[in-house]
Write a structure and sequence with these properties.
The complex is a heterodimer of chains A (459) and B (493). Helix content of chain A is 72%, strand content 2%. Chain A has 17 helices and three strands. In chain A, strand 2 and strand 3 form a beta hairpin. Chain A has 459 residues and is mostly helical. Chain B is an all-alpha fold and 493 residues long. Chain B is 70% helix and 1% strand. Chain B has a two-stranded antiparallel ribbon. In chain B, helix 2 packs antiparallel against helix 5. The longest helix of chain B is centred in the first third of the chain and has 54 residues. Chain B starts with a helix and ends with a helix. The chains are: A mainly alpha (459), B mainly alpha (493). At the A-B interface, helix 2, helix 4, helix 9, helix 10 and helix 12 of A face helix 2, helix 4, helix 5, helix 10 and helix 11 of B.
């Protein structure tokens, strides 16, 4: 029975030129987007490796100089994308993927790719995630809107019921037909994920997309069985698609932005300056000096058993970090709140669920970016401490200026950042998982209810 | 019945139908509400920018006033003061303390479209440093918000208006044709072309009239400074864009297929014209004119910085070659500050080809985008709305050019003053004592002139005319088919 239903739908599909044309278009776009994503991601990974190593070589071979000069010379660190970024680049276009690490100053990430882009790009980016999240649902709608409603409108439904056809199997057959088509189209994505990304990440990625697309299959069948005519069914499904994929995501993120506002760059930077470089800082440094002199029982810093400059610079670094870190954390907290607010809307919108999940698994969301930024800041602080401690350990005066060399630069370990295991990020995206599960369960029940209702009416 | 009066009745009937149909009223109300919300969001965005600019301007004026108030105390100060903390020291001001901003104020029309205003920086704090450091200054916004884009009027018009028009009009003529009513109407002298055109006009009026009135009223409510011309261009753009979609609907219904078929074709067209083609065009443009890598840019910047530092001794003499007016004041021995500024200049020169490569790529991409914009109505409308709102690339590039020129002016101002100070030994008048006051009046420091950008006067009508021409071309085809509608529909019966 199931086989016959699938066979019949397949036959109808083959006869309908429009559907074949549409499937070809979407598959073509998907392959093109995947190819361009893979080329782009590999290029970034290659550049990342090359420039990271040349930056490291530059750091190690900067020559002999005062450690504090080296601290100002600084270095750059870069975020390397995972292979899955080729499918879902997430928000990486809209955030800088390089950070400058230097003395006294914590910098924001540099060079957002979107800043070098034209306005047309804001109308949409043709990447595989966009096709999977927005276009495949549309394809499911166009292939499935008439699956049940057309049977009803043509009077076939009543005849089938009178013949004693099992309505559940009929529904499953039609669902299976749509699901099989969707699965076929996901094959290139799944193959790429499994070959180039670890199993767990690739499996979760494929599973989440499968779940999402099945929700659209369920939604399409439900609306098709609730509507009296294919026209009604198509219009309702298109309305649902527009609301889910276009209107709601924008509305929710805009609302999140109003609810958890982030201050302007000017205000933030002004706050950083006004809170760090204050008379209190001068007082704290003077107090530190007095305490140190007292501790060592000397009257002048020159009498200390270490280089006072190094100790003072490290103290002022720590003083500044203690003030700036909460400010950066508070700003990130606002973003996290915006993100949580957005993710909670997944309960009402499976598009938001898959979007947040996909970015999380591909490690292209703000959460993963923030981990990179935090790691970069930890590295900056470690780097400053290593240099300042070395300065502290060496006398430095105008007659005998201290200059460190390669041995010290090598003491600063190379920056390394690796993304956390995907299982760790599951916790932050549990709302999205639950939303997908909830939508799936709800639609399953609703579909059986709708089909039973139809069968009752037919009898 | 008189055909003219009959058509009048059709319009009246369609209007009544629209008013009585709850789903149509809901759609129109939602569209108008979304338009209001979109205008509010964009207005809020521009208000945030205006507030930041106002705060920056106040801080700048306050810094000038405070410096003047502290001058007497500084002149009589004997306690040691570091130059990098001294607001009356040229070096401190130039490299660390200067409160000098360059700002691009949003236009009153910016409530129409956020455009690229959420990505492009609009406020820079200027210092005498290499201009590459300007890249560090931008408004840190939620990247997800930037990815999804603002819910502004442009979004409502580009994406939602066609959907509403399609939803309301996809069964124009098709309903009458397939329900058999058209045969009865045809007996009374009605033609396919007349019926469909009058139906479309009536239904479009139901959508456009409330939308346009809502847009004008909301814009006026939020900002009274919007020029009358801008309202006219905006209304023209909305009408032309709507006209394009109405004509496309007309073309579709002229094939005498069922309403469902029309809906599917129109939705596919919407998807192609508004979503797929712009995205594909962007990919093509980026592929044909690839943006140089910013990771490699950093590498080049670092290599150039090393080279400039290595050749530091030559930097000042190279600088003086281009500034002969300063040569007569050249100090006998090298000076840290003068070399520092000369090194900044040398680094900018070294980076110029790399910086230019980015600008040129963006210009080439934009030139291609300008040509390709004629391929879809969505890109035409987007270009038009971004230009009206002042949040387009051309205005931003003009701003960046003004910022660059101000940056240069500041450097030249400080360099000239520093030459004098070095020659007068004002930075180190005696061993162990404070530097002299080298910048007594901060108001003498060049300030960024309010950024005024003359929009291309004749550019606004290009998109509107293009939309009209596209519509007229489709209209000709649609009319040709509709003239023979009865033949198509009933096989010549």
């Amino acid at each position: 029975m199931l086989k016959s239903v699938v066979k019949k739908e397949w036959l109808l599909l083959k006869r309908d030129g429009r559907s074949v044309w549409f499937i070809t278009l979407v598959v073509g776009l998907l392959l093109a987007a995947l190819a361009s994503g893979v080329i782009n991601t590999r290029l970034i990974q290659k550049e990342h490796a090359e420039v990271s190593s040349s930056e490291r070589a530059r750091w190690e071979n900067q020559g002999d100089k005062n450690p504090h000069s080296a601290a100002h010379y600084g270095t750059y660190v870069f975020k390397k994308p995972l292979a899955l970024a080729a499918i879902d680049p997430g928000v990486s276009l809209y955030q800088g993927n390089a950070v400058r690490l230097e003395a006294h100053k914590r910098s924001d990430e540099l060079f957002r790719q979107a800043q070098d882009s034209i306005a047309m790009g804001r109308l949409g980016q043709l990447n595989a995630a966009f096709i999977l999240q927005s276009l495949l649902p549309l394809l499911i709608i166009l292939l499935g809107f008439s699956l049940i409603s057309a049977e009803r409108a043509q009077g076939c439904w009543k005849q089938l019921m009178m013949l004693g056809v099992n309505n559940t199997k009929l529904l499953l057959g039609k669902g299976l037909f749509l699901a099989a088509l969707v699965l076929l189209m996901m094959v290139p994505i799944a193959l790429y994920s499994f070959f180039y990304q670890g199993f767990t990440r690739a499996f979760l990625f494929a599973l989440s997309y499968f779940g999402y697309l099945m929700i659209w299959v369920g939604l399409t069948l439900l609306v098709s069985s609730l509507c009296k005519s294919p026209r009604q069914s198509l219009i309702w499904l298109l309305v649902v698609w527009s609301v889910f994929c276009l209107v709601l995501p924008k509305m929710v993120i805009n609302s999140a932005n109003s609810r958890f506002p982030v201050e302007s760059g000017f205000t933030f930077n002004a706050k950083l300056e006004s809170l760090v470089y204050t008379p209190e800082r001068e007082l704290a440094m003077a107090r530190y000096k007095l305490d140190t002199l007292e501790k060592y029982g000397v009257k002048h810093v020159d009498e200390l058993p270490f280089n006072w400059d190094g100790a003072l610079i490290q103290y002022s670094e720590k003083y500044g970090d203690a003030i700036t870190e909460p400010l950066f954390e508070a700003r990130a907290e606002q973003f996290q709140s915006q993100y949580a607010y957005y993710q909670n809307a997944a309960i009402f919108n499976p598009f938001i669920a898959i979007q947040t999940l996909s970015m999380s698994i591909a490690a292209t969301d703000f959460q993963h970016h923030w981990l990179f930024v935090k790691k970069a800041e930890q590295h900056r602080q470690m780097m400053q401490k290593t240099l300042n401690d070395d300065l502290k350990d060496h006398r430095n005066d105008s007659e005998n200026p201290y200059q460190a060399g390669k041995a010290l630069w090598q003491k600063v370990t190379p920056f390394s950042f690796s993304y956390p295991k995907v299982t760790e990020s599951l916790a932050t995206s549990r709302v999205s998982w639950l939303a997908l599960l909830g939508w799936g369960g709800l639609l399953l029940v609703a579909n059986f209810w709708a089909i039973k209702r139809l069968a009752r009416r037919a009898n | 019945m008189n055909v003219g009066r009959f058509n009048h009745s059709i319009i009246k009937y369609e209007l009544l139908r629209c008013v009585r149909d709850k789903s149509i009223i809901t759609l129109i109300a939602l569209l108008s509400l979304f338009a209001m919300l979109g205008i509010y969001n964009a207005w809020q965005h521009s208000e945030n920018q205006l507030n930041a600019i106002a705060l920056a301007s106040n801080a700048q004026q306050q810094a000038i006033a405070e410096s003047a108030a502290q001058l007497a105390a500084r002149q009589s100060r004997s306690a040691p003061i570091s130059w990098w903390q001294d607001v009356h020291d040229l070096r401190g001001q130039a490299f660390y303390l200067m409160v000098n901003y360059a700002a691009k104020s949003p236009l009153p029309e910016s409530a129409i479209a956020v455009g690229q205003a959420d990505i492009y920086p609009y406020l820079f704090r200027m210092l005498v440093n290499n201009k590459q450091q300007l890249a560090e200054q931008y408004d840190y916004q939620n990247p997800l918000l930037l990815k999804l884009g603002q819910f502004d009027l442009a979004f409502v018009l580009i994406y939602l208006l066609p959907l509403v028009l399609i939803a309301i009009n996809h069964n124009v003529l098709a309903y009458e044709h397939h329900s058999g009513q058209f045969k009865i109407l045809a007996l009374q002298g009605e033609t396919g072309i007349s019926l469909s055109v009058h139906q479309l006009i009536a239904r479009a009026m139901c959508v456009l009239l409330p939308l346009v009135l809502t847009v004008i009223a909301t814009l006026y409510y939020f900002n009274r400074d919007i020029q009358f011309n801008s309202y006219l261009i905006l209304v023209g753009a909305i009408v032309c864009y709507a006209l394009f979609w109405m004509v496309l609907i007309l073309l579709c219904v002229s094939f005498a297929r069922p309403a469902t078929f029309n809906a599917a074709v129109l939705m596919s067209s919407w998807l192609c014209l508004v979503v797929i083609i712009p995205a594909a065009l962007t990919s093509f443009i980026e592929f044909s004119h690839p943006t140089p890598s910013r990771i490699e840019y950093i590498d080049t910047l670092r290599a150039s910085t090393d080279k400039v530092n290595h050749d530091a001794s030559k930097a000042l003499s190279n600088y003086l070659e281009d500034h002969p007016e300063l040569r007569e004041n050249e100090p006998a021995k090298g000076s840290y500050v003068l070399t520092r500024v000369a090194k900044i200049d040398a680094l900018e020169r070294a980076m110029k080809p790399t910086d230019d490569a980015f600008t040129e790529t963006l210009i080439s991409q934009q030139a291609l985008a300008q040509q390709f914009r004629f391929l879809t109505p969505a890109t035409l409308l987007q270009t038009s709305l971004n230009r009206i709102s002042g949040n387009d690339l051309a205005r931003h590039q003009a701003f960046m050019s003004a910022v660059s020129s101000h940056h240069q002016t500041l450097r030249e101002f400080f360099m000239a003053q520093m030459f004098v100070a070095v020659n007068q030994s004002a930075f180190s008048p005696c061993a162990g004592c404070n530097a002299e006051v080298t910048l007594a009046d901060l108001s003498l420091v060049p300030q960024f002139k309010p950024f005024l950008y003359e929009r291309e006067k004749d550019a606004w009508y290009v998109e509107l005319i293009a939309l009209l021409l596209l519509s007229v071309a489709m209209l000709c085809v649609a009319f040709r088919r509709l003239f023979q509608f009865e033949k198509f529909a009933y096989g010549g019966a």
